[in-house]
Design goal:
Length: 299
């Protein structure tokens, strides 16, 4: 499969601290790659190295199946941290001036504004846009030159539900209708779940897991989480009842049941018979979030 980005042992050291630590990552053509980690985990530093905005301390970066890196970066558009634009200019003026700055045709401004849903903003100054509109303008600037690969660093951070929905719809259309490959970093797991095809989970500068959306669904889609008064005894009791090994102990008194079962009552009754109190039962949505949180914490 054609890869768009591959890093091997990529490392960044600041003041003797490994902010990015020996990261191996591969993003394939057509992916929406969810780059997941807590604030400060190393996501933005990694992105800045990929874009050539920060020197690497070790390792290598390869793009577009080994194409010349300088040339490959010209086929990459990015929105890093917060969008940079001229607040006293309109959306169209901002895109046109950016086209001039990087030697692209200004005539593409109208089509870009249509793609990002800002074609009706007219003479309204960008400084007066809502936060969601500003983020879409930032993505519009990243689309100048029609790049094949987009890198979006926390594009939904701080947005209200309407703004998040707008940006999510835009990202999906860029992938499905424009054929873009997208790396999107975020710590908002519930939103990435709705769009990502693959994930890379980073904790303390290290990639702790790469997993496809399908693999994640197989691991968590049938899972239940339960909080009990005696998790160790509960694990043994449920394993015996369901004749399965797909029961594991998590953090904070939680246990996870990966065996598909529609008979929660039978499980809780068996636990009650064994003097184990069931304090809470949660479905797959919460267990997927728990799965990510545990790995973001390096567990």
């Amino acid at each position: 499969m054609e890869y768009i980005l591959k890093t091997e042992g990529l490392t960044k050291i600041y003041s003797k601290i490994k902010v990015v630590d020996n990261v191996d990552m591969q993003i394939n053509k057509g992916d929406i790659y969810g780059f997941v980690g807590k604030n400060g985990a190393g996501k933005t530093t990694f992105i800045r190295m990929v874009l050539g905005l920060a020197r690497i301390s070790g390792g290598s970066i390869s793009m577009f199946d080994g194409e010349n890196l300088k040339k490959a970066r010209r086929k990459t558009g990015s929105l890093v941290e917060s969008p940079a634009f001229y607040p006293n200019m309109t959306a169209k003026e901002n895109i046109r001036i950016f086209c001039r700055m990087i030697g692209e045709d200004e005539k593409q401004a109208d089509s870009i504004l249509e793609k990002v849903g800002l074609s009706d903003t007219g003479k309204k100054k960008a400084g007066n846009f809502s936060l969601g509109m500003k983020q879409r303008l930032g993505i519009g600037l990243a689309l100048v030159g029609d790049p094949e690969f987009l890198i979006l660093d926390e594009p939904i951070n701080g947005l209200d539900p309407t703004g998040i929905a707008e940006v999510r719809k835009l990202i999906l259309s860029l992938k499905n209708e424009q054929g873009k490959t997208i790396l999107i970093s975020s710590h908002l797991i519930s939103e990435l779940e709705k769009i990502a095809t693959r994930y890379g989970i980073i904790a303390k500068g290290k990639i702790v897991e790469e997993i496809s959306a399908q693999e994640l669904e197989e691991k968590c889609g049938n899972r239940l989480s339960m909080k009990t008064s005696d998790p160790e005894k509960a694990v043994d009791t449920i394993k015996a009842l369901l004749n399965t090994e797909k029961v594991e102990k998590g953090e904070n008194g939680l246990i996870y049941i990966s065996e598909k079962t529609d008979d929660i009552g039978r499980i809780t009754n068996e636990l009650f018979k064994n003097n184990i109190t069931v304090q809470a039962v949660s479905s797959a949505d919460n267990t997927i979030e728990s799965y990510f949180i545990e790995r973001m914490e390096g567990k």
